Amino acid sequence: MSFAELMSKSKSRIILALDLTGPSLLDRALKILDEVYPYVSAVKVNRHLSVPLNIEELSKLVHAIHDRGLLAIMDCKINDVGSTNKVMAELFFHAGFDALTASPFTGWKEGLEPVFNLAKDNSRGILVLVYMSHEGASENYERLVLDRSSISYKRMYEIFAEKALLWRADGAIVGATRPRILAEVKRLLKGKIPIYSPGIIVQGGSIEVSLKAGADYLIVGRAIVEAPNPSQVAANLNRLVEETLARLRGG
Ligand code: XMP
């Protein structure tokens, strides 16, 4: 089964961004995982853990994520030459990660192609950034550029949405902080690729607005991991997601 199919079968639309800092990272990550796993579909790991932990420790964390019935995503934003990208992807896939994030600025030939091929051969996923969640993302993701294939001016994120379709990405990442663009990318993707939306709560994105605009999965980090009671917050957010989806379905 592909990564996208596995995600579509999961019981929650929330992805936990397990972004911790400080001492005893692995132990604290495993503790939060134990508290939160019933309310999320996947766990996303970022530099917070991938820099200080070694590959064996990351692999141990991935096993714990899988043991609780969740998928593991490495937010490594692949952005180098193909041979280096492939080495990184092999290491993370070998550690057990089910999907990796990639930057489309890298391009295809000798860039992301080897990584997509590796992912397909191993039934893993690649999620492509289409528009990031932070304020400065507009400087480049919204830039008006001449698209060589259609000889027309397009916004960078429109081209990246088209690339995500062309490359058959398993997901497109669009920040929850810009619902209008989220809705536009949803139309461009024609329902063929799910949208993963980071930037919920702490960065200002709203669960209700993002789901209405077309987000399929919501990535939540600090709002859960920095809460005094992560499990309670995750349960409340999951309930809000379910209520919002029921309302949108007219239920
Ligand atoms: P917070 O604490 O803001 O964490 O809920 C969000 C997590 O998602 C990452 N992030 C992004 N990842 N594209 C990405 O691939 C984005 O536009 C984006 N915005 C935030 C962030 O690094 C953190 O791990």
Judged by helices, strands and strand pairing, the structural class is alpha/beta
What is the helical fraction, as a range of percent? Answer: 40-55%
The level-1 CATH class: Alpha Beta
User: Rg from C-alpha positions?
Assistant: 17 Å
Order of helices and strands: HEHEHHEHEHEHEEHEHEHEHH
Number of domains: 1
The number of helical runs is 12
Biggest pleated-sheet summary: 8 strands, parallel, barrel
The proportion of residues in beta strands is: 15-25%
Strand arrangement within the widest β-sheet reads 1-2-3-4-5-8-9-10
For the termini, the CA-CA separation is: 30 Å
CATH topology: TIM Barrel
**Broad shape:** globular
| Ligand set | xanthosine-5'-monophosphate
- Name the CATH superfamily classification: Aldolase class I
**Averaging pLDDT over every residue, what do you get?**
97
Count of DSSP strands: 10
> Which runs of at least 5 residues are low in confidence (pLDDT < 50)?
none
Under the CATH scheme, which architecture would be assigned?
Alpha-Beta Barrel
